[in-house]
Design goal:
Rossmann fold, seven-stranded mixed β-sheet
Length: 269
């Protein structure tokens, strides 16, 4: 599948989720703790935002796999960029930290998500939070602009991760850093899972091997790279049965291969 086709799938899937939430439709694919492939929800996050300052339930669509702001070392007055900002939840959490003197920018390439984020921000009345439509592989943003970049379960959906981290390096200020939560693999994910478009848009098949993911970060010049959290995402047998035979499931489980959420940070010198 070509990069443009994958992006189209992701846009359509997340537009559907945003529009369902805009209509308050309870049949949305994802809930407060899950992201799903096919018709079955997969628990992704296991972390609770409810006690975190700035959390906005209307902006939390349950699409994350971690809370990157917890390890992002954001300071008052910082300019923060959230990649794949969705309905704005992590932006509003970051806004609670940077305060009145800082600024927060959300970047997303799905119109419905931008619309929902702007509406949520209007209700909150923040004048130093804005949302920009754009592709992470080609950000419509100026060089050396941001102190901190965060992202939550988004970069794994970007087809060209080299371009993504090159762009992160470009728009960070010297001395700035990123902290992202994302989905990675250990071992080999069976091709039947990897190739399925619904699983791709559901935060799983877009993932790459953890070592390769970290190698890409280093290749683009980041230093002091730290994995703060590493947590296995267990796929229910009912999900595996949609794609694999019984013998294939047993082999997959025995291999020690799996899907993990990580929160990782790195610095631009």
């Amino acid at each position: 599948m070509k990069s443009t086709e994958l992006k189209q799938i992701v846009q359509e899937k997340y537009a559907e989720i945003a529009n369902q939430r805009l209509k308050k439709d309870s049949s949305s694919c994802c809930n407060s703790s899950g992201c799903c492939g096919s018709d079955i929800e997969i628990s992704m996050i296991g972390d609770e935002y409810k006690d975190i300052e700035g959390h906005n339930p209307d902006a939390d669509l349950g699409l994350g796999c971690g809370i990157p702001t917890q390890f992002a070392e954001i300071n008052k007055g910082d300019h923060v960029l959230d990649l794949g900002s969705g309905a704005g939840n992590d932006c509003f959490v970051a806004r609670a930290i940077v305060g009145e003197t800082g600024k927060v920018t959300g970047l997303d390439f799905t119109d419905a998500m931008i619309t929902k984020a702007i509406e949520n921000n209007r209700k909150l009345g923040y004048t130093n939070v804005d949302f920009v439509k754009g592709d992470i592989e080609e950000m419509p943003l100026t060089d050396n602009t941001f102190d901190v970049i965060v992202s939550n379960c988004v970069l794994n959906l970007v087809p060209d991760k080299h371009k993504a981290f090159a762009e992160i390096m470009r728009v960070l200020k010297p001395g700035g850093h990123f902290c992202v939560s994302d989905v990675v693999l250990k071992g080999n994910l069976p091709e039947k899972l990897r190739k399925d478009a619904e699983m791709y848009a559901g935060c799983v098949s877009g993932a790459i091997e953890m070592g390769l993911y970290l190698d890409i970060i280093y290749e683009h010049g980041f230093t002091n790279v730290t994995v703060h959290i590493e947590k296995e995402i267990e796929l229910p047998v009912a999900v595996l049965e949609n794609y694999l035979s019984k013998d294939e499931i047993n082999g997959f489980i025995a291999s020690g291969s799996g899907i993990f959420s990580i929160t990782v940070s790195g610095y631009k010198e």
